[in-house]
Amino acid sequence: MQGGLQTNDDGQPPHPRDTIGMKTLNQLRWTYLTALFILLGCTLALGAFTLHLAYREALARGLNDTATHARIAENSLTQSLSRVELSIDNAMTDLASDADEGGWQNTLNRTLRDVPMLRSLSVLGEDGRIVTSTNPRNVGLTVLTERFLPAGNVPTERLRLGPAWTGQDFNQGQPVHDAIPTDKTSGGFIPILRTAQKGVRTLTLLAALDIHDVVNHWVERHAADNKNLSVLLSDGGLLFAPAAGELADAPPRKWVTDLNLALKPSGMLEQQLNNGAQVLIGFQSSSQFPLLVLAQHSRANALASWQRNTTRMAVIVGSALLLVIAIGAILYRRQRELMVSRADSFYQLALNAKVFDASM
After folding, report:
1. Which DSSP string corresponds to 269-280?
2. In this structure, are residues 139 and 130 in contact, taking their beta carbons and an 8 Å threshold?
3. Mind listing the pLDDT tens digit for each residue in 42-59?
4. Are strands 291-298 and 160-161 parallel, antiparallel or unpaired?
5. Which residue blocks in 98-136 are alpha helix, DSSP H?
6. To 10 degrees, what angle do helices 22-97 and 212-221 make?
7. Rounded distance, CA 250 to CA 297, Å?
8. What is the pLDDT of residue 207?
9. Residues 6+ apart with CB under 8 A from 155
10. Sign of the C-alpha dihedral computed for residues 247, 249, 254 and 258 taken in this order
11. What pLDDT digit, counting tens, does each position of 279-291 carry?
């Protein structure tokens, strides 16, 4: 060793690798890998948290949409029934003031023309038989009203609703256990009953309500959104439900009875269909009538936008991560080469110094 120059045992300057030291290179490598893993971990954690929040938001938005849909449908249905109730009440007032029962036919016909959603309008006798009707074929028929809601045999000032019927009118159909199909050509109606004390008389009017005029435009309007409506009595009796599509397999009667939905004014929940599909449900009870409206929305469709955004976000974040990894790898390689280059320069200087010292 001369002039303070460090040499190996054989008198030669140390190799650049020995000058840098494997420990220094390993530290550089581990620094790079640690920074890379921290970046990946933070990015994945932040992405997962963001996707979870977006998922919860999409699900909540879907539930709120179904609840709003049910509320709007119930409000429209309640208003329609209120107009029917008012028209029937006016007709009962006219009937009570008409001493000649033969003139009742004109009153019924006039009311039917004013309320196009009614198929027929009839007067029930004390024995439950139809004594006068806008449809002469209904006269003499007996309509059982025990299952009408609100329940009770005493006269009530409230409009009472019965289970769904098949056919176009009472003379052609009978009560059914299933809902009326959404296809209007298949027929079907909802019987409604109004009993009131008018002076010394107790009158009972029976009407056949064409619920298609009230509900079908909702079904058609929201078919593109995969939303479906079901209308039920408060005891779970199904009046109207989807007849086709993914949600036709829904058991709304079971939901109403098992979950006591009729006891709640409104709400939203998730349920599983018989075919395993998940649906979002919003329900709204009528404030005036024994009715419950259920809006169903496919959970998969409600989350479709979230899934598209997730795929788009994964592509963007994945591409950004690959770019960052590539840039980091380039910087790591350049830093390593720079360290080796500096060591080579030092090595050459050491050799030159040794040669210079040897020539002296």
Report:
1. EEEE-TTS-EEE
2. yes
3. 888 888 888 888 888 989
4. unpaired
5. 104-114
6. 160
7. 11
8. 93
9. 195, 196, 197, 202
10. negative
11. 888 889 888 888 8
User: What is the residue whose two structure tokens read 């390593």?
Assistant: 336
**Are 171 and 141 contacting, i.e. CB atoms less than 8 angstroms apart?**
yes
Q: Which two tokens stand for residue 240?
A: 């109207």
pLDDT of residue 344: 66
Q: What are 132-162's pLDDT values in tens digits? A: 999 999 999 998 888 888 876 555 667 899 8
74 φ, ψ (degrees, to nearest 5): -65, -40
Cα of 263 vs its chain's centroid, Å: 21
Are residues 295 and 233 in contact, defined by beta-carbon separation less than 8 angstroms?
Answer: no
Which residues make Cβ contacts (< 8 Å) with residue 243, sequence separation at least 6? Answer: 181, 182, 183
Residue whose structure tokens are 């004013």: 114
What DSSP line would sit under 320-345, residue for residue? HHHHHHHHHHHHHHHHHHHHHHHHHH
Q: Give the 3-state secondary structure of 157-195.
A: CCCEECCCECECCCCCCCECCCCECCCHHHECEEEEEEE
